[in-house]
Specification:
Layout (H helix, E strand, L loop, with lengths): L1 H23 L3 H27 L9 H27 L1 E4 L3 E4 L6 E16 L6 E17 L5 E9 L6 E13 L2 E8 L5 H4 L12 H6 L4 E9 L3 E8 L23 E14 L17 E13 L8 E13 L3 E14 L7 E15 L3 E11 L8 E11 L5 E10 L23 E10 L1
Antiparallel strand pairs: 1-2, 2-3, 3-4, 3-18, 4-5, 5-6, 6-7, 7-8, 8-9, 9-10, 10-11, 11-12, 12-13, 13-14, 14-15, 15-16, 16-17, 17-18
Length: 450
């Protein structure tokens, strides 16, 4: 009987030590409380030991058995204190919209994020190859972000696997410093502040992909420096960098990863200003509106101006682009509209000067709150004679949100009313031949963020 009691007590203490050790790893904020609980447990055991010594079963608790129990309790407490010390000095880890590591005061942190967009595209057009359909890994990205030395000094690096070759391509690679009073300076490679449809993440769009008009006018990724300020109601940004690869007859191209002597732009500036008329800034970090969101209204505009490299060719083209846009959110419905203008001035050939205009309007509504959403979009662009026809298209589709943007299924149909003037394979469209129009594309996509 004495042996059974002794073994049972040791088993309880051993189980308690394992539980305490495991729980001590949860975080430095709980360690002291658990140590205190173990101390109290030891005190209770000591009291029981003293009571047993004074009673009829005191004989088996004298000598080595009693010391064995005390040694076990001391070992548990020492291990808990050691774990608490390590946590206080070494930081924290877990999940917070991404896997993260950080030290105790938050001056150093690292977060890992990823994006997977797996898509099926069926394209139908008037050509010898009438139907083109296949699966593709539209986007597969890995990103690292956080801060170093201070919560004010931040960084972000994102690599994307090319959807055709699978090779890794650098996208974001920047650092930023919060100067104070809402001011921030950013340097490196990033998307300059110009039009929201481009700067809002591809993971938080309404349709399967951005509009063709956006593919024409966006600045993509560029290298440079940008100063920004965000207040309670107003925000603006001003940047100086490498600009974009712009053309009157092709989609815009990024200036990512260019050497200083290989950017083909003498200089480029961008600027943007926004006013928050209702709601909160964070509401406009995506293109949808959740049922928990308050009514939100944002209006703004952007400018970009760039000049081609001097002396590299006979044609030096100056580009001025502007946009005026707005977003409205109504709790379970959303609306976005943007108007664009772009003007080119070629010094050698006035025939290549263009004044082009376009617009995009889209909206969506949740039929099942935060689960099932219908959306539609219309876009139009005037090429000012660069092509024989203007461009216009209608897109309709739905989103099913399993876990908001973190896990969603999007399906839509794009009907191109006018001919598609060039390949835009990223959105599932191919160039139409002379006299062809009415191209259609069915796109369905599953997205997972981590």
């Amino acid at each position: 009987m004495k042996t059974h009691v002794h073994n049972a007590l040791l088993l309880c203490l051993a189980f308690s030590s394992m539980s305490g050790a495991a729980m001590a790893g949860d975080g430095p904020t709980d360690a002291d409380a658990r140590v205190a609980a173990l101390e109290a447990q030891r005190a209770r055991i000591d009291a029981q030991i003293q009571a047993m010594r004074s009673g009829e079963r005191s004989a088996w608790l004298t000598g080595p058995q009693s010391e064995e129990i005390r040694a076990l309790v001391r070992e548990v407490i020492a291990e808990s204190e050691a774990r608490s010390s390590l946590l206080a000095e070494g930081g924290n880890a877990g999940w917070d919209k991404g896997f993260f590591l950080r030290n105790d005061d938050g001056s150093f942190s690292l977060k890992l994020n990823g994006q997977i967009q797996f898509r099926y595209v069926w394209n139908n057009k008037d050509s010898a190859d009438e139907n083109t359909a296949s699966f593709e890994m539209r986007r597969m990205k890995l990103g690292w972000s956080g801060n170093i030395y201070s919560k004010d000094l931040k960084y972000k690096v994102v690599g994307a696997f090319d959807r055709n070759s699978g090779s890794m391509i650098l996208e974001d690679a920047w650092g930023s410093y919060a100067i104070g009073e809402g001011w921030t300076i950013k340097w490196g490679q990033f998307k300059p502040a110009f039009n929201p449809e481009e700067t809002i993440s591809s993971s938080k769009q309404l349709a399967v992909d951005r509009s063709v008009v956006n593919e024409i006018v966006n600045l993509g990724f560029s290298q440079g420096v940008e100063v920004a300020h965000q207040g309670e109601q107003f925000a603006f940004a001003f940047g100086f960098g490498d600009g974009a690869t712009l053309s009157a007859m092709a989609p815009a191209g990024s200036r990512a990863n260019t050497r200083f002597n290989n950017d083909s732009t003498e200089w480029a500036f961008n600027a943007r200003a926004d006013a928050l008329l209702a709601g909160e800034w964070k509401q406009f970090e995506d293109m949808t509106s959740w049922t928990t969101d308050d009514t939100g209204v944002r209006i703004g505009g952007g400018l970009s101006y760039q000049d081609s490299e001097y002396g590299t060719g006979a044609e030096e083209v100056k580009w001025l682009q502007w946009t005026f846009d707005g977003q409205l959110e109504f709790g379970a419905a959303n609306l976005f509209a943007a108007v664009f203008g772009r003007h080119s001035d070629a010094n050698a050939d006035a025939a290549t000067d263009f004044d082009q205009y376009g617009f995009v309007i889209q909206g969506g509504v949740h039929l099942v709150p935060d689960k099932f959403e219908l959306f539609g979009r219309y876009e139009w662009f005037d090429f000012d004679g660069a092509f024989a026809d203007d461009y216009s298209a209608v897109t309709v589709g739905f989103n099913y949100y399993f876990r908001k943007h973190d896990w969603k299924w999007t399906t839509d149909i794009v009907w191109n009313i006018d001919p598609v003037p060039f390949d835009v394979t990223g959105v599932g469209l191919l160039a139409d031949g002379p006299g062809e129009d009415g191209q259609m594309a069915l796109r369905t996509q599953m997205q997972i963020l981590f």
